[in-house]
Design a protein that fits this description.
A 3-stranded antiparallel sheet has the order 1-2-3. It is mostly helical and 428 residues long. The protein folds into 3 domains: 1-49, no CATH class; 52-208, no CATH class; 217-335 and 357-421, no CATH class. The chain contains 18 helices and 3 strands.
Amino acid sequence: MTNIPSIIKFGFSDYLKKEEKHWAKCKWCKVKIADKSGTTSNFSRHFKKHSSEFQRYKNTMKLNVADSIDDQKLKNFFPSVSKDTYANNSAQANKIHKSLVQDLIVGERIRPALSKASRISTLAHTSCTFIEEFEKVFGPNRSIPQSNQTRWNSTFHQIQIIIGLDHQKLVNICEECKHVEAIFTMREWTQLKEMVDILQPFAEATDLTQGELIPTISLVVPTILALHRHLDQYSNKSKHLKVMITELQTSIRKRFHGIFTNLTLCNDSPTLIEIGNHFPFGDPIYILAAVIDPSFGFQWMVDLNLAESQKETLRCKIKDMILEDAESLLDRHSDTSEEDEDCQQKKGCMKLFANYKKRTSSGQFKKTTCQLSRYLETVEQDEQPKCLKFWNDNKEKFGSLYKVAKEVLAVPASGGTSFQQRGHYDET
């Protein structure tokens, strides 16, 4: 029996081998298939006619292959977990663990619950008995998605769907199908629910920042501050995953250290000297983009654990930076428009003061300042349309700020972003 090819073992029965041939009967249509020893092409060709069962077979083979990949690396991550502890579902468990390890630190206590979640998902795609019982209890259109090891949020959605099921009914199905290794204890069930509560805002942030038709750079500062506040609040009521929350907080502060430094939220920078530093995400463009986005303005400051006087100092510095940026863009536009006039000047004109260009007038600066004040009042009063639509509708009303928005919001959100990368949004 150990020499039976995997496809025959999965989809056929009554296997018989004699001399240079072997035979077997299809489990679904009872047709007898024969082929030469050493090949299974006839069996594969026939099995493909049963498309759903053939797909389940392929899924099972992928899991078996994954089971042998990076096994030693997994042991380095989880040295206390025996490979044989969850032998039947280790491949999918490895996937879910490796997926989460890339972005999160998973506590020791929750690993058995994650392994059982992956086992349930595997059974929902490979076990005919389990699938029939599952659909009988939860309905024919209910299923549990498999996770993608390169997308952490696919694992999150998988667990979210599992805990949305009735716990006792799921236990009954596992007992009926004799898969007691996949039964969740009440403690494990509570752990998964708590994990989903913790990671829900992270999943929302992941989906939001993957948008291709919206500016993403303006989302960075509000998102990071909101996630940090969420973790602070949840750490006080967490029962099982305090270690995970602490590690997430540390990871966020390290990866986005530049933002926390600019907002004087770090112990090494308690006083704001200037906005902008060499740390990751330390370029001031992230803060400017958040203010220029009408969805936020200065509203994200509610998540800053600062005194009101410190917040006001920060607001003033950000406003000054926006005004300086607007003035610089207006000067650039003015220089371009004056080139033709300069070319027409007489050759006898003195070169001594040729570098003294006309700059933005004080009247124009006051106009831009007034625009910024009116813009901030507008975005704080009522809910505004989406960012690009707002600026397209108000480009005449806030002309100077519109020029800033076109350049700042065109920059992609990444750790290497800087003012040198500023672009130009297509108004369409």
